[in-house]
Amino acid sequence: MILIHRKKILTCLTTMLCLVLFSGPVLALDVQSLIREIEQQYMGASSQAKTTMQVRTANWERTLEMEAWSLGRDYFLIRILEPAKERDVATLKRNREVWNYLPKVDRVIKVPPSMMGGSWMGSHITNDDLVKANHIDEEYQLRLLEESATHFVVECLPKPEAAVVWGKIIYRVRKQPQVPEQVDYYDEEMVRVREIHFDQIHQIGDRIVPLRLTVLPLEKPGETTIFHYRELVYDLPLEESFFSLRNLKQP
Amino acid sequence: MLLTLAYRNLWRNQRRTLLTLSAMVVSAALLILALGVFSGMFKDMLASATEQYYGHLVLAQPGYHLRRDLFASLPAELVDLPALRDAPEISGRSPRLRSFGLLSRRDTSQPVELLGIIPELEQQVTSLQHELTAGRYPAAEDLNAALIGQGLAHKLKVQPGDELVFVTQAADGSIGNDLLVVSGIFATGDSRHDNNLVLAPLPWLQQVLVQPGRIHEVAMRVNDPMNAAQVASRLTPLLPDHLKLLDWGILLPEMREVIAAYDVSRMIIVTILYLATGLGILNTFFMSVMERTREFGILMAQGMRPWAIRGLVLLETLLLGSIALTVGLLCGALMTLYMQQVGIDLAGYITPVTYAGGTILPRLHAVFEPGNFAVPAGMLLLVSLFAGFLPANRAARLNPVAAVRED
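Structure tokens for the assembled complex are given below, as produced in the milestone run.
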């Protein structure tokens, strides 16, 4: 009796394992790693970058020079170099928390959950974007929407239980070389509210990445945020301890 | 002659007249008290919204009160605009700059609304200086003193003297940030203000927001808040076209509707109560007319005209109404006065209720308002006349021959 029972359970388990391993995910796997790679194209296993951020709004326009470091998905540090007035203002992301350092008052401030949707450094990306962009492949159901000779189009719909900001995300990815061209963000009413365009494709080490990224908030016509990667180095020997609150304060 | 007759007639059945009279007095007096307490409640509500935050009148760019747009700023000199300075109804003017941002201490941060103010001017418009639970109101010479709500102080775990960091986006796109020192803590009972509001010096906020010499609004106090809309429409033609002067009725439309609804419900309460009183009067006078059928017959037989009979009965009811009115108003005024001076504190039983943009404080407290006396008084006289009309008509239509023969 017991033996038979065991056998049954075993068969059952094996079948389930087979199902999990070989059936569903076979197709999805490609798309998932594709999106993950795109979201981490500037990070790799670890990275260091110098970036110019140009923000244009209806009321003001400004340019920031920044230096950024990253380690895996979870650690990210970015520090302002120019203009002088804001030099050393820095942001640290550890896992899902975001901290800002303000040299003028010499304080580190954790961004509370209620402010995660707020603008980051006055740009058109939010604190949430910093935290969640890396997890799109985990929190969204990905599906290959279209495939042409030159492009993939991937649709991302939030998983039912995921606490996410967007109602839908569409990636348009070039096949050769494999780089993103455009990402469209839709709100919960399925209205397209933001576009990110990528251009200036360059080879950095063994990677090919677009060095310029333009964010267009569609509900604010005429406003843009442009990130321009001027220096980008991958696979540096960075430790987790580098991304500490203490290091956030010490340039 | 008729008046003397009417007065004497009233007291022929003393017990009945006194009973009716007491019913009228009690209903009028209680009504006046109840309306006074209602008015007190609404006044508290209005004061909580206007005198703790908005002000009665606000001058700003059109739409500023809806969008709170950082860039809709104005020159600070507007506060001394001659039209506003010379208006006799305006008793206080306060220039304000507003910012929404993050207030933090150590690891705790809270989103807040920060008003940049000039302490001595702001105190002429709002009355947070009377709601302090700790510390003191920022003084003119303080550079970065902050007055914060009790709920906020509790969440950030701060006492007067503690340092806070305020972070927001400045008008040039940079991250505006600077230190504040808590000078005082206020508690209004309105959770939105207690958990959210911070007052800091205007020059300090102008520097943080990179908005030197700019303000968002001029908040004003007027002598009679109920008159704010009229003051606004009188002053509007005297002001520059690109500015908008709003009264609290526009800033707080729910509050205006609650008060308008109050005027209607006051009439309904008065009507219901007086309907009962009116039936009592009607009963009294029918009885008294029936009893005097023979007497009326004799008066008519002697040549008294029917209109005089009708007038006599009406005069009796009117007289009764007037006596009730005088005593009722007096009692009502005395009770209202007591509730105004002493009141009843309910803080032990209920907590403040926030409703229609204002806060109802846990107390029963009355105010004097002319309408609360005029409406019950006028209605009482009207009800007396109506209640007297039917018996008077009956008396006037009597056939003298039949009436004299009646037992």
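The longest strand of chain A covers residues 192-204. The two ends of chain A are 70 Å apart (CA to CA). Further analysis is deferred to the final report.
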